[in-house]
Putative hemicentin-2
Amino acid sequence: MIARLSESIWWHCTARLVGSNTALSYSWFKGDQPIIINSNTELFQNGTFHIREVRRVDSGSYHCRAQGGGEIAYSESATLSIAELSSLQSAQIVTKKDNLLRQIRLIARKSETVDLLTQMIIIGGKAAQFLSNSCHLYLFGTKLNMLYLNQTQCAMKWCNHSNQCCDMETQSTLNVAVVEHRHSGQYTCTASNPLLAGEMRLSDSATITLIGRPGFMTSPSPQVALVGSSVTFQCSTSGSPAATILWQNENEETISNSQRVLVSTNSLRITDVRLSDGGYYTCKAFNEYGENKASALLTVTDSFVPVAFTRTPVDQTVVVGGRVTFACEATGTPEPTLTWTKENGDLSIVSLRTDEPAPGWLRISNVEVSDSGLFMCTASNGLSTSSTSVQLTVQEGPYFLSEPVAITVREDEFAMLDCTAGGVPEPEISWTTPISSLGTLQTPSNPSSMIEVAGNGSLTISSVSREHAGRYTCSARNAMHVSREHAGRYTCSARNAIGSIHSDVTTVHEVAGNGSLTISNVRQEHSGYTCSARNAIGSVHSDVTITAHARPVITVAPQDMTVVEGDTVMLTCRASTTPPVIEVKWMYQSEQLFTNLKYEVFGNGNLRINNIEKPQEGTYSCQAENDVGSSEAASSYVTVQVPSPEVEVFPVEVTP
């Protein structure tokens, strides 16, 4: 078993004296020494051993001893290990050129020089023990995802509760087929452990310096300046030998120091900016291997209006697989540009699932749980900048991590039922039992009538008796919704705001016969069922309800209409089913419509067409979707009439 520090763990030990009902006594050993029970440990009569809060000194080998009737038996050993993250070794660099292979081990801050067009392999060192790790590459503090050409994960070692382990890769390798200037700099491998939140290990850094014509580490960026202000362009290079830098104007004339211009090795500064200073400025870097240039535009303006938002996005909650649109608009002089970023995240990771339905807007399709977080819309015109934030919450339907299974146990034996569920929001686990006086048992619960619910959601019965036979219901709930119980079945249910799933479990003393009911091709008319058992003495009955999920059905369809050009048109579409409708889509002539300046798709299924024009005449169709599938499309035809021009009649004077 692997446990985090301060985590609560349980070990169970059960034995029986063959041919005798003699009660057994249990004791536990760590190594060869008997365990002395203290405030942090518990030993139950049924042999269960509990450590309330795991400490580092608790790691080691444990076994159980059962004793009674003059007999003694020992269990096999189980090892308790503490989740940890070991240090990384120094990074290595292997360079390959002209079919020769040489290997250099780098220590912190030591540099290595390679030629351009050399194949380079960077290997991260030995990483964490016990659990999986992830390696990331950093260049001067900037994460370089684009460099992952052939990457494997850092060291992994997964162990289950039976201490069965699986070893995987022990190195993380980065291959760069053709070395470029952007690859120069410091490289560091980081290792993290999912059980040890906030902990990280860093390898020693490896520094790469390239031989060849200069490359740019920092290139000049476009600038916007007011008349009379100051502006600075930055430029720095990489490569060996070191480069000489010159600044040039649009006419490729070298710029020198003057009363308003200051030229330094890595910058160009212009003070008291004038309209005539507008144009392109070029940083030219050269050495004995060649030269390189980078240019940027200076825009000079004599008017300025600060950036101001005219439309800001609103917080949204969306289901996994859905789509979300954030609207963001701003004004200012010069005209601002709008960009989107994600707090503590990389928006480029979801770039294949994003688009811009209108200037400055952000739309994410096929939303994933990892998309949850704070998004920032930034408007800038070079002279002023303003930002606004919006929260995206992604909900995920519940799913079972472990399901209870039907079991048959004898009296006085130990029994355990597992039921854990995942989802967003994270479900909370509770149990109801055949012993009605216990009510609902929350996670975790104190022992009562030999029954206890552990922090992980598992229900344990330390010593089974006849009163424990019957129905056990495990419910998963979150802040949005509480699961419903299904009478007459031994059911474990998981439900949150998105949906629900169910798994059956029966706890009995004896099982005879097979009374299962199988329904093929379930339809919504399949609902209530009663199971009856009878013999010569009497009969008993048990009821169960089945909820059938189906595709949506359009209940209110859009109607054909005739409108006048320039009107605002509202088309209505409603659907109903179980589970609820997730989204209503609109199509025009079979092409899907999205919210923009012309069309607005509302959450209730309506479509509004603003200032309709003759080219918008045609067939509009709506289609509803849920977790099961899509409805049949419902269509309407919108006819757009163009008003005839009014003719004004003037009287004409006729002279005889």
